[in-house]
Amino acid sequence: MSKRTDTVLHITPAQYREYAEIAKAHGMVLRLFEQPARIIGLVGGLDPAAIDATSSSEIGSLVEVPFLLLCSSINASEVRRRGQDRYECDLSKLTDAEMYRFWLFHEIGHKANNYSTLSYQFKHFGKDPLYADTLCRMEYANEVLADRWAWSQVCDRPMPLTPRGQKHQEALAAELAYLDGITGGPRNHANPWPHVQPGRYHAVPLRMLARSDAALWIGPDVSPAVTRRAQEYEAKVQRSPGHYLPESLLLSDGGSQGCRPAHTFGSLEVKDE
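Below the sequence we write its predicted structure tokens.
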């Protein structure tokens, strides 16, 4: 359990089902993806999901739910190498057993313990001359907060700091105090979602159900009618991949998301003197 290897870690079907239940408890559905980019996970908008994947009924059978994406494999060596220069938390200290759970809870942390950039945009757009700069500062701070929250949920020891994190503790504290003052502090938006119930066949993303190996990840009792609708939806996605995540990230800029890195292990933009 305490091993730290330089191998490529792969999520297992049992892990997926466990993590899917954790995501649902926080008002999200979990979808896996594979892509040749340094993106491990992200949270996004809404995904269509089957309320009950064993039911052949069409009327009232789907719900749109906030989604959480996790890559099906993690290069532990790269995480550890880049993690030593992360904003604050030294990810090189994660064990193999902690790696996937950390990233799961990091993404949940963006809902459970983050500044609301959307609320700030509604309130300050066109009014604050430092609007764009403040948004970027909030997004970098949100990465720090998500790391802290994930470590507290997954690891039973104090969070280790990178050299950068050690050097800039006072600056980080001042930054968070400043953002607290203009936003009222981080908020928890990881709330239960309507029609999202526990259970392997409940609230399953259509794109997971469209996979050729869906039975491996979800279970053997998925309704053929649900599978058919899921495959029709996936065909629609493939016709316009630029409108969907994570495909749009690859097509746009190789995985970048504006001023906030999509977990490419970039460093917090605090200038070293």
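Residues 131-154 form the longest helix (24 residues).
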